[in-house]
Design brief:
Distance between the termini: 21 Å
Mean pLDDT: 89
Low-confidence stretches: none
Number of domains: 1
Order of helices and strands: EEHHHHHEHEEEHEHEHEHEE
CATH architecture: 3-Layer(aba) Sandwich
CATH topology: Rossmann fold
CATH class: Alpha Beta
CATH superfamily: HAD superfamily/HAD-like
Structural class: alpha/beta
Helix content: 25-40%
Largest sheet: 7 strands, mixed
Length: 236
């Protein structure tokens, strides 16, 4: 059992496989009948075997998503919202914590989902896709921090106060040295890199299970089959 102070100003969430049960880019790939090819690239990136920038470029060159397709994925995010996610965000917001979404996904999709969750668009960060006048794909913003490896960490460093990050993949883990606590969420996907390196690993499929970790000033953490701690180092 370990005790720590779960008193954070901001709570930062990944989107895909954290707030929603799906990987948006894989859903886009399914629309184009290239899901297997794209899923392999996604998994290589999430496990840390491929840089996020390389993975993004490869996947977009294959998929070339339209604006309508991105909005369809945003609705799919809503349809596949993780159990407890809406309740958790409402609880955190009512407690005065600032909520952020940091996603390697695409802004049009993530923004639609964020609106459903009640997260202000000012605090939503994702990759920007460019479109032709008819809504077809024309490219993406390669200058965005989120279009490259360590981009989430760059954004996290601009956020003041104490912070906790909740995510499921290698790009989320890159923020670990810039937040006060990193919670690896394995309730949707179990990834070895997260299980071995997150401060706390949560396996519960209901996201509300992380609430005690980030709401209480003094919380006694007991390891179980749903929660495991690797290291409690708040770096304050």
């Amino acid at each position: 059992m370990q005790n720590f102070h779960g008193d954070f100003d901001s709570v930062l969430f990944d989107c895909d496989s954290t707030l929603t049960k799906i990987e948006g880019i894989d859903e886009l790939a399914a629309l184009k009948n290239v899901k297997d090819e794209v899923s392999r690239i996604t998994n290589d990136a999430m496990e840390g075997r491929l840089s996020f920038q390389s993975a993004l470029e490869r996947r977009l060159s294959i998929i070339r998503p339209s604006h309508a397709e991105l909005l369809a994925v945003g609705q799919k995010y809503i349809d596949e919202v993780v159990d407890g996610a809406v309740e958790l965000i409402n609880t955190l917001r009512q407690s005065g914590k600032q909520i952020y979404i940091l996603s390697g996904g695409f802004l049009d999709s993530v923004s639609l989902f964020a609106e459903f969750l009640g997260v202000d668009s000012k605090f939503v960060f994702a990759n920007e896709i460019f479109f032709e006048a008819d809504g077809n794909y024309s490219g993406f913003n390669g200058e965005s921090a989120l279009a490259r490896s360590h981009g989430k960490a760059e954004i996290v460093r601009t956020i003041k106060g104490s912070k906790v990050m909740i995510g499921d993949g290698a790009s989320d883990l890159e923020t670990r040295n810039d937040v006060d606590l990193f919670i690896g969420y394995c309730g949707v996907q179990k990834r070895k890199i997260i299980e071995e390196n997150a401060d706390i690993v949560v396996y519960d499929s209901n996201l509300m299970s992380v609430a005690p970790l980030i709401m209480n000033r003094n919380f006694s953490l007991t390891e179980s089959d749903q929660i495991r701690f690797n290291n409690i180092d708040l770096r304050r």
